Amino acid sequence: MSAPNLVLICVDQWRGDCLSAAGHPHVRTPHLDQLAASGTHFTSAYSATPTCVPARAALFTGQSQERHGRVGYVEGVPFETAHPVTLAGELRRGGYQTQAIGKMHVWPERARAGFDDVVLHDGFLHYARREGGRNFAFFDDYVPWLRRQPGVSPDAEYSDHGAGCNSVVARPWDRAEHLHPTNWVATQTTEWLYRRDPSRPFFLYLSFHRPHPPYDPPAWAFEEYLQLPPYEPVVGDWADDFAGHRKDGDHEAFAGSMDARTLHRARAGYYGHMAHIDLQIHRIRMALEDFGLRDDTVIAFTSDHGEMLGEHHLFRKGFGYEGAARVPLLFGGLPDGYAAGNVADEVVELRDIMPTLLDLAGLPVPDTCDGRSLVPLLRGEQPDAWRPLLHGEHVLLGQSLQWVTDGRTKFLWMSGDGHEHLFDLAADPHEQHNLVDDPAAEDLLHTWRGHLIQALAGREEGFVEDGRLVIGRPVVAVLRHARERIEAAR
Fold first, then answer.
1. 159, 172, 350, 452: which one has the fewest Cβ atoms less than 10 Å from its Cβ?
2. Percentage of the chain with pLDDT > 90?
3. Residue 206: pLDDT band by 50, 70, 90 thresholds?
4. Which of 10, 18, 52, 369 is catalytic?
5. How far apart are CA 318 and CA 393, in angstroms?
6. 3-class DSSP state for residue 361?
7. Omega before 84 within 30 of 0, i.e. cis
């Protein structure tokens, strides 16, 4: 298979542990498990900047946050100016037909980021609604499609049921299932397969907005997980370090407590979305088979970040803890010579997907990438030297949340509060026990604090001074070199 078709499926806010192939006690993902069984499941995959906008910068550019410059969530940054070299653009130059369907979350919203075409549904998009005056045709294709469907009013929205796009308040989908945004992505994919150019290989980027809130899966999926025993999120012995940021009872808070019934329903909605997406991915794979394309198509599955889901009294994303930062990553449909049923525990990141897909396509990886091709790992090889550790970060709660990990140990530091957390992930995978004050871990703490100091040395914020971490420095969401590139293009 000299030039395989490539499908990259990116979901939104899916935790890395939420696969039955990963041993999750409740989530059932039989079709994703089947995909993993045909190739490789990466068990230590991370999003180094775990919110939608900067994570997609890494995914589209093959770059670390130090290189692409997006270290926080900020809208209105001209994507193609800030990030001129992209995965889709390189595949397009290499002869691929490139198509995006679903969530892009770039600005302007219709920027193609190297794709031949985009069919958009990014979710609620507060920024675009304000800037576009709620004229959806400028920034969304799903809502205009929904309004054209029989029995749907001309002013309908997918959020008419009132469930919020960042809220833990959950309820089942209130329309026919085929009208759900999750089904829409699969429907648009099948329709595109009829229109593709059969003389060229294709790259399809399929991006589901769910399991991001609103937690509104179809009733069958919601009810399946509503029947689980009461939800009791794990809470670490360090959770009070976020006491100053708590907003107890606020259904959109990043930190705080929530009543047990609301939280139980939120989990049902979140897991229900996963069951729904798993089926729609199977629908897409069946369509590829119907078109005679399944044996010539490599499929990668990942997420832009995870979801804390009330663990440690934290919600949403942006944190360096496993719930928010670790993501699923599967590659299946690989050609002969690649491993099947392979499980790789090397630390990998979203930046590695671009060089991997270019490598699989037989195309050169541009010098702009500092991600690494995963092809040796897909072959089941054990490289002599892999990434020794990963540095991640995100501006959140008025400070920069910094972390480093090798998949077995993790050190985190809050630039505003100065709190430090050290975890033995092998013994404590749920990050419940902070080892910072453990005398037996003093040398380990010194080593891992040193790793972060080395990663932050020379940063414009001044996080490191005289070889020490410095708290209280002003933070930025876009690093200087990216800001200067944008300014120079104006």
1. 159
2. 95
3. very high
4. 52
5. 8
6. coil
7. no
